[in-house]
Design goal:
Elements lengths: L11 H4 L12 H20 L2 E13 L5 E13 L3 E8 L3 E6 L3 E6 L4 E6 L4 H12 L13 H6 L4 E10 L2 E9 L3 E8 L6 E8 L7 E10 L18 E2 L24
Parallel strand pairs: 6-12
Antiparallel strand pairs: 1-2, 1-11, 2-3, 3-4, 4-5, 5-6, 7-8, 8-9, 9-10, 10-11
Amino acid sequence: MTPATPLRAIVGATFGAAASVALTFTSPAHADDAAQILKSMTNYLGSQKTLSASFDSDIEVITPELEKIQFASSGQLKLSRPDKLRVSRTGGYADVEMVYDGKTISIYGKNAKSYVQANAPGSVDQMIDGIQERSGVGMPGTDLLLTNAYDVLMANVAISQHIGQGVIDGVECEHLAFRTTDTDWQIWVETGDKPVPRKYVITSKTVAGAPQYTLRLKDWKTDAFADPDTFVFKPPADATKVELESAAMAEFDEIPPGTPSGAKQ
């Protein structure tokens, strides 16, 4: 998992906001509710043959002067179970596309005009585990797409809470919060018969300043993909192929090169 972003309350009386709020949930019912809502979300996503969505992400870094700097990206994802995935992400420092066709994983950095490929026969789940293990490339949010997402998300959870309701992009959601030893994470799940995640926030507690990663998801669709080339990677003629473990992989990161190690989640 990975980081997110703080919100500042303004004009408290007008907007019903407060500068400081202490939340305490001790009732076991809140934990049960949170787990049940999360389970309904992962069951729904896992039961869909095809999924697509667009997203906005924010990642925080902590400078040596303990200043928080946030970097923003937007992108799209397309999934066809069990073995096809396409994700694109554009930000200020990377314009990246990843394509998995069930046999080969291809990652193309448009700014770097280079790409990496690796044989990875199997499922999307196996590919996600393999690519992160081999290259160290962060893929925050991909845990939501796993067929065993509930087990993965809840593996190290010590405390779970159903905070209440919230509204994300005009959509009413259930607000859930979870705690592990290293991270706190929150998720907002759309209410109704399509319980998709709308916002996902992960806070690192092991890094000074507690940087966060925020993922907002929208435009969820479950329609089959009409284009037969949706999961076919075709490198541009001027693109250079590099080794997966190459330093050139740094070009695919969400933040500028040279960011101090440990400054981000």
